[in-house]
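== Sequence, structure tokens ==
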Amino acid sequence: EKGCRRIGDRKPRLDQRVTDMIKKRTWNEFRETGLLWWINRLLHTFGWAIVFEVEPDDGSVSNVYPARCRFRGFDEKTESEGFAKVTAYMKENAAILLTEAEDCPEQEHVKEK
């Protein structure tokens, strides 16, 4: 378990270095950015999907789980909306994503080029 250490009760605990590199997000944000759609496009290749159960009254996520699926891909409207969301996310976050990629300790070889 790279990046983890075991303590007294043998439960894994992330090292501080790894903890500093992680920022917890909500499932709703993951959906709104288009990343759920993007990941499910890939997973559909293998007959899998990440399924979100959403409450009809308030739109909150009540459950998330991996599932086998028989369908592959999405309809044209969903594809267009997904690409627009992911593109907007990349546009809004490009500078920070580049900084994070360049500053990652495991990516020192990138700086050499």
About this structure: The mean pLDDT is 85.
